[in-house]
Amino acid sequence: MEVQQLSFQYKRKTILERLTFSIPQGQIVGLIGENGSGKSTLLKLMAGILKPTSGTIELNGELINRRHTNKIAYLPDIDLFYEKLTGDEVFSFYQSQFENFSSKKANEIASFLQVPTNVKLGSLSKGNRARIKLATFLAREAELYLLDEPFAGLDPIARESLMKAIIKFIDTEHCAVVMSTHEVNEVEPILDQVMLLKDGHLCAMDVVEDIRHERGENTVNWMKNLYGKRVR
Amino acid sequence: MTMDFAKDRPIYLQLVETISGDVIKGKLKPGDKLPSVREFALESGVNVNTVQRVYKELELMELTETKRGQGTFITTNQTVIHSIREQMKEQVAMQFVTSIESFGFTVDEIIEVLKNKKGGN
Questions:
Q1: Inter-axis angle of helices B78-102 and B11-25, nearest 10
Q2: Which CATH code, of 1.10.10.10, 3.60.21.10, 1.10.510.10, 3.30.70.2190, is assigned to B11-120?
Q3: Mind listing the pLDDT tens digit for each residue in B66-108?
Q4: On chain B, which terminus has fewer CB atoms closer than 10 Å, C or N?
Q5: Candidates B8, B44, B47; nearest CB to A212
Q6: Does the beta-carbon distance from B7 to A218 stay under 8 Å?
Q7: Which of A196, A85, A193 has its CA nearest to residue B50?
Q8: CATH fold of A2-227, please?
Q9: Cα angle: B40, vertex B43, B47; to 5 degrees
Q10: Rounded to a whole number, what is the distance in Å from the CA of A36 to chain B's nearest CA?
Q11: Residue A164 near chain B (CB below 8 Å)
Q12: ipTM metric
């Protein structure tokens, strides 16, 4: 994915300003930055759900629009499934909506995550609802996977199992992944690169192993130095 | 089991050291098969690309051999294993020296302590 001079304004307020970057195929990129730095907006723009005020976003040479939902899988940070549905019902709804969705794969992921699919979502724990949500997301075959805060508010065991499902079920050779997260230390081992947003600007983008190699520091320290703030 | 990593060095290097250590300790034996890249990624909780780099590095060190269609195996060449053991010994000793120097101890001082410890056991 190629992003050029991307800006986004909402009610005259600039949310993102002139971002230029590319997401290479075969890589997992972490999107980090403070709350309100524009991470969710950027993911929605990349998903084709929002339209840029100016600038371009291309996937394999094509400008992104709403129709690209068949090539881009997007996991929002909110829970959108009906509580009265079971996992199986959610899977069959997705099967009816997306050509690239596989119920078989969704069931395989659900069983890897050890979450029941015959129970109403409303009676599942938050961790298990997140597992069903991720299974639904990963069961789509896409060129680009976008995840908005997939681990927020979950216990460490749920976080670890979701990360393992991402390693196991996304064939990174044929696609790219971008995920926003605050759990930088925990997620760092599964990332190739990190992008740091600050007040709507792309503050830096670098390869995780290079940050460690060249600076002898992990991504959290890198982020703190770039933010130039004392963290109390 | 997901692994924990030191903050100040590349993850792939830490994984190379873990595997080298396992060979030196005998936890991995000559001729043992390593898991596939994806299985290893899953076990250690690390990016597939990072594991690929680990496997490439091990191959360069000649600690492993990849047999087409069969997978990656620990070398049966004892000379290689011996020399990696020697390198590791040197590296651990150097790290130790850096660490004691950061507290202002001299090597001789510490050797005294170590000798006493050994005598005591």
A1: 120
A2: 1.10.10.10
A3: 988 899 999 999 999 999 999 999 999 999 999 999 999 999 9
A4: C
A5: B8
A6: yes
A7: A193
A8: Rossmann fold (3.40.50)
A9: 65
A10: 27
A11: yes
A12: 0.85
Task: Select from A164, A167, A212 the Cβ nearest to the Cβ of B48.
Answer: A167
Q: Residue type at B1?
A: M
Mark which residues 16-45 of A lie under 8 Å from B by CB: 26-28
Pick from A178, A172, A179, A98: which is nearest to A139 by CA? Answer: A98
Q: Per the CB < 8 Å rule, is B49 touching A218?
A: no
Location of structure tokens 């595997």: B19
Alpha carbon of residue B114 to chain centroid: 24
Confidence of residue B4 (pLDDT cuts 50, 70, 90): confident
Output the CA–CA distances (angstroms, integers) from residue A217 to A196, A211, A214, B92, in the order listed: 16, 6, 8, 21
Contact criterion met (CB < 8 Å) for A213 and B8:
no
